[in-house]
Amino acid sequence: MSVAANRYAKALLDVLYPANAEIGLDQLVKFSALLESQHQMRQLFENPTVAADRRKAVFGTIADSLAYQSSVRNFLNLLIERNRLDLLSDIVSAYQKLLDEKLGLVRAHVTSATPLDAAQQRELAAKLESVTGKQVRVELSVDPSLIGGVVAQVGSTIYDGSIRQQLQAFKHRLIHD
Asked: Tell me: the pLDDT tens digits for 119-140?
């Protein structure tokens, strides 16, 4: 992540926090996803040979239809004007990280062998919150190769409670003992 992306993210968060910080994140994510899915639109917005006023007019139409906040609209217009829209995905990541820090949140990427029901998700989140001492937002994925159990990654720490890992550890003990 670039220094510029961090600076832009911090500046926007300073403007939007606390009242509109999460709405702003949602709007940035939507616009970033739109650019990812529409290759020609991305080329238009990132092409410095197209006049900035024309690019901003196209963006204005999009922002009107998606009812963007004026602060987010101004921020994205600034990126368009300065030809920095190529940093948007990095800015979104940095913004999310900074917002999580301000809110005292950590994100946990949890992979399970089978989909978890709502009760299992709440129980897992509660256990992770007790381990980390912070509020946890869980992002789920499924990987049948785990056989059973879950693998949770919180920051750089990995909690591996999968059957696959237990079998590998058992095999290692059998071979080396």
From this structure: 999 999 999 999 988 999 999 9
pLDDT of residue 155: 86
Q: Based on the fold, state whether residues 116 and 167 are members of the same structural domain.
A: yes
Selection from 112, 114, 113 nearest residue 139 by Cα:
112
**CB-based burial label for 161 (10 Å; 0-12, 13-18, 19+):** middle
One domain for residues 127 and 115: yes
> Residue type at 62?
I
Residues 35 and 121 grouped into a single domain: no
Residues 125 and 107 sit within 8 Å (Cβ to Cβ): no
The gap from C-alpha 136 to its chain's centroid, in whole angstroms, comes to 14
Q: What is the pLDDT of residues 33-82, one digit of tens each?
A: 999 999 999 999 999 999 999 999 999 999 999 999 999 999 999 999 99
63/69 Cα distance (integer angstroms): 8
- Check which CATH number belongs to the domain holding 42 and give it: 1.10.520
Write out the residue range of the structural domain in which residue 111 sits: 104-176
The reply to whether 26 and 71 lie within a common domain is yes
Q: What are phi and psi of 124, to 5 degrees?
A: -65, -45
